[in-house]
Amino acid sequence: MHTIEDGIKNLHKDFGKEIGGKGVKFPSYDRLPTGILPLDIALAGGIPMGAVSIFYGVENSGKTSLALRTTASYQKRYPKKRAVWIDAENAWDEDWAVLHGVDVKNLYLFKPTTSEQAADIADEAAFSEDVGLIVVDSIAALASNDQLEKTADKVVVAGAAKPTTTMMKKIACGMTEHAKSGSPLTVIYVNQIRHKIGFVMGNPEHLPGPVYQNYQAFLKLRLTGKPILKEKISPIPIYSDHSMKIVKKKFPAIRQTAEWQMILYPHAGHKPLEVNNRKQAEHLLTELGYLEKHGTKEWLLHGEVYGTKTAAVDQAMSDYDDLLTTFVDDLLLLYKKDIEETTGFKVGG
């Protein structure tokens, strides 16, 4: 028998002081904004950094688009760090990625044929000190050597689960090493929805791939999307309605759901893939008392007078991160009691 202090000395000798000890603080979970204001507010600032997030839903629900936006956001905020995209679906479209703001010249893109290859790629990326973001699109598309080499009648059911689990565990180990060094590794898994055959009671939906992904996930978002057609403007959908529901979270959130619109067809000054953040910003600025009428025609924002409401909101939206921080800080205080009672998390210490 020995004291914990003696045990820590042995651990530090064997594994280094980075392993932990009394009073040691590892990096907390900062947020990475996606650029979609309603979503970022709901998540109290964005997806958690240094953790695993899963974006899933049916086809055309905006899973890959959200992953691309988040990648672009990461590249903008952390230019010295590297982002890695593992394209298991072989569906990478450079022009589509550029429209979402991704710097494709500085993105590391890989196209594995098998889940074993994906595991090796993830291993190299997760233990690279300059990598800060890994995206796997998608878990459902990963197929093992066993599945590809054997005939259909001999393929083992869930044959891709073992190598995919290996990939996820390699990533988890890499995340731990990054946390020890004070440089968080953020991971996004894109996945789809499957329905259990013959299922009668409960939720028939499940995610392809190993069950381990559900345990590893710090955040799970279920996305939906619906293209909207306006024949008078265009014979093709001009925008799509999107929504998300938080299925799992291990951190305080402000809201469980969020809704937004994404422009698909340029019209009325809107650009393709532009997100309509203005409506949400204007509503919250008014509700929280930052934006108010001043006289008969003018508007007051943070003590400054503007000729129109549009000009005032434009000014507020000119610094997205500052606007988001203001909203999140105020809403966390507003919902402090409800959040602490429902989640057990303490807001603001």
Fold and architecture overview:
- With 349 residues, the chain is an alpha/beta fold.
- The protein folds into 2 domains: 27-276, 3-Layer(aba) Sandwich (Rossmann fold); 277-343, Rec A Protein, domain 2 (2-Layer Sandwich).
- Helices cover 36% and strands 23% of the residues.
- It has 12 helices and 15 strands.
- The chain has helices spanning 4-15, 37-42, 63-77, 94-99, 115-126, 145-149, 161-181, 212-216, 278-287, 309-317, 320-334, 336-343; strands at residues 31-32, 47-48, 52-57, 82-87, 107-110, 131-137, 186-192, 194-195, 205-206, 219-229, 237-249, 257-263, 291-294, 298-301, 304-306.
- Strand 10 and strand 11 (237-249) form a beta hairpin.
- The protein is globular and about 75 Å long.
- The model has no long low-confidence stretch (mean pLDDT 85).
Outline the secondary-structure elements.
Layout lengths: L3 H12 L15 E2 L4 H6 L4 E2 L3 E6 L5 H15 L4 E6 L6 H6 L7 E4 L4 H12 L4 E7 L7 H5 L11 H21 L4 E7 L1 E2 L9 E2 L5 H5 L2 E11 L7 E13 L7 E7 L14 H10 L3 E4 L3 E4 L2 E3 L2 H9 L2 H15 L1 H8 L6
Parallel strand pairs: 3-7, 3-10, 4-5, 4-6, 6-7
Antiparallel strand pairs: 1-2, 8-9, 10-11, 11-12, 13-14, 14-15
Helix pairs in contact: 5-7, 9-10
Q: What is the rounded distance between the termini?
A: 37 Å
The percent of residues in helical segments reads: 25-40%
Structural class: alpha/beta
CATH architecture of the largest domain: 3-Layer(aba) Sandwich
Number of domains: 2
In the CATH scheme, the class of the largest domain would be: Alpha Beta
Tally of helical runs: 12
H and E string: HEHEEHEHEHEHHEEEHEEEHEEEHHH
Q: How many beta-strand segments?
A: 15
How is the CATH topology of the largest domain named?
Rossmann fold
Shape, per Cα inertia axes:
globular
